Amino acid sequence: MISRRLLLAAAALPALVLSAAPASAETLKVVASFTVLADVVKEVGGEHVKVTSLVGPNGDPHEFEPSPADAKNLKAAEVTFVSGEGLEGWMDRLITASGYKGKPVTVSEGVVTRTMEEDGSEITDPHVWNSPVNVKVWVANIEKALSAADPADAAAFKANAAKYSKTLDELNAYAHSKFDKIPDDRRKVLTSHDAFGYFGREYNVSFLAPLGLSTESEASAADVAKLIEQIKSERVKAYFFENSNDPRLVKQVAKATGAEPGGELYVESLSDAKGPAPTYEKMFRYNVDQLAAAMAKSS
Ligand SMILES: [Zn+2]
Fold first, then answer.
1. pLDDT tens digits for 41-52?
2. Domain check: are 159 and 261 in the same one?
3. How far is the CA of 194 from the centre of ligand 1 (A)?
4. Helix axes 221-234 and 248-257, enclosed angle (nearest 10)
5. How far is the CA of 268 from the centre of ligand 1 (A)?
6. Is CB count within 10 Å lower at the N or C end of the chain?
7. Mean pLDDT value across the chain
8. Residue 59 belongs to what domain range?
């Protein structure tokens, strides 16, 4: 890109070379593994990037069947971002199939992760983005990678990252303002799978789920029976669906326990443009509002 810039500068009139705003490099072709990450990359990259998400709106980032078009997009990418921590189990296969020569940037590197026990083994919880505190780590990693790929626009990436980090601080303050006043024993909800661990850690909310950390696992009859007992004994009153998962299991558990539907949550996938969660910011606020309203009701 440097040589391209020099060529542009050489071709331009001297007045342009002296202009205060440096000529922008060409738009970077960027691929992100799923919609939530793609949105945050857009915030940091602004007009200097063209971001394509592999998993689409309302899609499940754990399980993904890439199309030939996805392989083509990946091969053409100048920078590729994944969240990491075991979320995108399909990525290595896609890299091999596509002939992509780069190495994806893992944006969750540096997040203080939490582990959970699943089927007797400890695994890292990949759903880091459900706390905006963690998304600030993403932003720093994204800024670093974009600036390395396109140094000419580093100042813009830095300014965008600073601005968006402020937005994330506001989201965090918003969630605290909603939850901190709710009594501890009411901060309990039922969801489809364990995607709110970091959210729960930040805002002291307990999430009970029939599925484990990944939607790839299946709940056994014994797991479901245990969960039903737990929900009854802890008097969990509200249950939530997820936009990207099959709601049948959570419905079944809810029916057996008498918990009331709280609505739909956007846990790991944005909605399309017409839905209530087309950006990370809107998704987070929507989830906070839904959860806080259900907890306020369930007295
Ligand atoms: Zn998940």
1. 999 999 999 999
2. no
3. 7
4. 50
5. 6
6. C
7. 87
8. 28-173
